[in-house]
Amino acid sequence: MNDIVFSRDVERTLESLRLELPKVSPPLALYVPVRVSGRYLYVSGQIAQKDGSLVHPGQVGSVVSIEEAVEAAAECAINALAHVAAMRGSLDGLRVVKLTGFVAASSDFKGQAKVIDGASQVLIDILGESAGMGARAALGVSSLPLGASVEVELVLETDDN
Predict the structure, then answer these.
(1) What is the pLDDT at residue 161?
(2) By the number of CB atoms within 10 A of the CB, which of 54, 105, 123, 131 ranks highest?
(3) Rounded Cα distance, 127 and 109, in Å
(4) Distance (Å, rounded) from C-alpha 6 to C-alpha 148?
(5) b/e code 20-41 from CB counts within 10 Å (16+ = b)
(6) Residues 6 or more apart from 79 whose CB is under 8 A from it?
(7) What does each of the 161 residues of the chain score in pLDDT, given as a tens digit?
(8) Strand, coil or helix: what is 96?
(9) Domains of the chain by range and CATH?
(10) How far apart are CA 141 and CA 159, in angstroms?
(11) Angstrom distance (rounded) from CA 74 to CA 78
(12) What radius of gyration, in Å, describes the C-alpha atoms of the chain?
C-alpha cells in the first residue's frame, strides 16, 4: 500500500513557481466556498476569474480554444486553493482526494480530460505529485455560471487530527 503524502512547504513552492494566490472573491450565490467535515475540505465549484474578470469565457470548441480552456482550468484550481488558504491560513498538510471539472463545451467537443489536466497540473505543481493528484472526473456541459468556460470543485483531506 502507498504511503499517504500530504503537502509541505507550499509557500516556498509558490515562490519558486512565481505564483501568488489571489484575494478570494465572495460567493456568487447561496453557498460557502469551503465546508469542513472532519479531515475533509469540500471546495465549492470555482470558475476562472482573475482580477474580477472571467478568464476565457464561452464554450470550448466554438469560442474558446483548448489551450485557453487549459489556462482557465488552472485558474479555477488556483482560486480553489486561495479559498482553502484563506480559511486555513496555509496549504500545508493537504492532499487532493477528488477533483471534478466541468467544461462548457460545444456538442462536438471531446477534449474535456485535456482541459481539466490544466487544473490537475497546477495542483501537482503546487502541492506535489503525491499530494496533488487524486481521483478525477471531467464533464462536458452546455453552460456554466456567468458564461465561464470551466468550473472546478475539489475534495481535499487534511493531516489535522
Answers:
(1) 63
(2) 123
(3) 30
(4) 31
(5) ebbebeeeeeeeebbeeeeeeb
(6) 22, 24, 25, 46, 47, 48, 49
(7) 457 899 999 999 999 999 999 999 888 899 999 999 999 999 999 999 998 899 999 999 999 999 999 999 999 999 999 999 999 999 999 999 999 999 999 999 999 999 999 999 999 999 999 999 999 999 999 999 999 999 999 999 999 86
(8) strand
(9) 10-23+35-158 (3.30.1330.40)
(10) 34
(11) 6
(12) 15
8 A C-beta contact, residue 73 and residue 115: yes
Asked if residues 71 and 118 have their Cβ atoms less than 8 Å apart, the reply is: yes
CB 94 within 8 A of CB 84: yes
Tell me the C-alpha distance between 28 and 48, whole Å. Answer: 13
Nearest in space to 60 (alpha carbons), one of 21, 99, 118, 100: 118
- Cell 485558474: give the residue: 75
